[in-house]
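Appendix B. Extra example for self-study. Work through it before the problem class; the solution is given directly after the inputs so you can check yourself.
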Amino acid sequence: MTMVSSAIPMVDDDPARHRFRVHRDAMTSPEIFREEVDRIFGHSWLYVGHESEVASPGDYVRRPVGGRPLFMVRGAKTGQVHVFHNTCTHRGAVVCRHKSGNAKVFQCFYHAWTFDSEGNLAGVPGREAYGENLDFSALSLRPVARMESYRGFVFASFDENVTDLATYLAGAREYLDLVIDSADSKMEVVKGTNEYCIQANWKLLAENSIDGYHAVSTHDTYFKYLIALGTNLKGGVQGTARDLGNGHAVLEYAAPWGRPIAKWEPLFGEDAREEIAELRAGLVARHGEERASRMADTNRNLLIYPNLVVNDIMAVTVRTFMPSAPDRMDVTAWEIAPRDELAQLRQRRLDSFLTFLGPAGFATPDDIEALESCQLGYRSGGVEWNDISRGMDRAPEANDEAQMRAFWRRWQQQMGDAACKEMR
Amino acid sequence: MTAIETAPSVPDLGSVGRPQVEDFLYREARLLDDWDLDTWLSLWAPGGTRYVVPCNDDPDGDPATDLVLIDDDELRMRLRVERLNSRKAHREYPHSRTSHQVSNVIVGAPEGTGAAAELPVTAAFTVWRFRNGRATYYVGRYYYRLVAVGGQLRIRAKRSVLDMTELRPAGDLAILL
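Solution. Structure tokens for the complete assembly:
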């Protein structure tokens, strides 16, 4: 696609008019989707998994990342976490065929080439048939171009020139720290994965995951559920939104629901009150009153550009999503929790996750309906632009859309002239 | 009146055979397909009930320690039904048309005695869901613990384990399995 003289960006950022618009072609166009796979998913840091998922030497998990089958494994010799392309260097078959497990070696079943957990080619049947000049060391499993981890969160990039992960994460680091430091033990991924699907453009979930404006209207039945369990909703949702740089953004706010770290609510039960008070005292001792209160009382919906969400709300979800078409995405979500959490609190946390965040809960199905409804609405035509102007003329509040604008500005920057619209 | 409309009468669990269990499960399936969820709730034994759907990748998942898709006690099940009966469960307003199909019913030997006796039952299920021109499906196995209350079969616990490796073919799970 080339820039033509009358073309304007699909992200129309017009502060003088207090108007921010996104052209709906950004959500429907097959060309845009193809360009995104290259320009965005080919050149960003993408979340692979959490180190707790491969705790022991030889532990592995298979992961689709940026639409490609990869696997993450902890090397038995070095103890290092590797992320490999899941393809035999001989003729291409996948070498990691189970979803997760522990293995000393990964053997391609096709011709039985065998790789160790560090990726080295350890066995080739009939090796004597190959000439002596063939360099077998060049036939090790291929690691992704770049792999780095930030405090247990493992990311990969297919762009070897991508900036280092810490720089890339920019202001988002502070918010990952708040989640990680709130646990008095290490954070771990809880067993059981939500792997669902939404027939809508992936960017709608980036927006929705950090959208405070929709909560009251879309999630009426969830709030009724909270009321039935004794929660007082009077305080409502109060907070702010921040642009964290590089397309990352966060909502930070007080909300009526309880937080396993460490804000008691009636639905946790009277007998959990003391435990939560102790947790809170521990947080204050470790982090001081101010930071402890932030960890215990406030909620954070964090978007790490382009497709990672770490929402630290009534439970903590790590959610990633990848488009398979302009109007379809696969969503994968995990729950993370302090490893040594008391059984009773873990139960509350699990309850909180599945009732709000889970695809069979009292809220997420309605988010899915909203996103699919938008995607359907675009087909109706007549309206070309989405409006994302809320709060442009004031300091960003939690119900505004400043955080979405941060995402979209970075998206436009990465897409460049591939995301322009010729105006009639 | 057929057995679908009326609950089969069972004096005690020892006398219950597969036909009575099938009639009971078919009746439950019909109530779900008819979106008569208040009557569906009446099929559950009072007190101590549990309706669980584990995550696709963790079929043996324990709701006390693992993330599951659904873990409803009596209260949450009632609130789930209230939600689905309301016009604010947007994913299910308007409701999907569903077809809950139950087969391969296997009735185990009663466990426990007297009022505490439970009948373990497993069955295969296929649930079709149709909405807005789209067809989705859920395939898996039911694990029931049935009890006799006042001469009627009732559900003490139900665990719906999905065979699909991921939930993706179905999208979400806003309906009851």
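Self-check: The interface with chain A takes residues 53-58, 61, 63-71, 75-76, 79-80, 82-83, 86, 88-92, 132, 134, 165-174 of chain B (CB under 8 Å). If your reasoning did not lead you there, revisit section 3.
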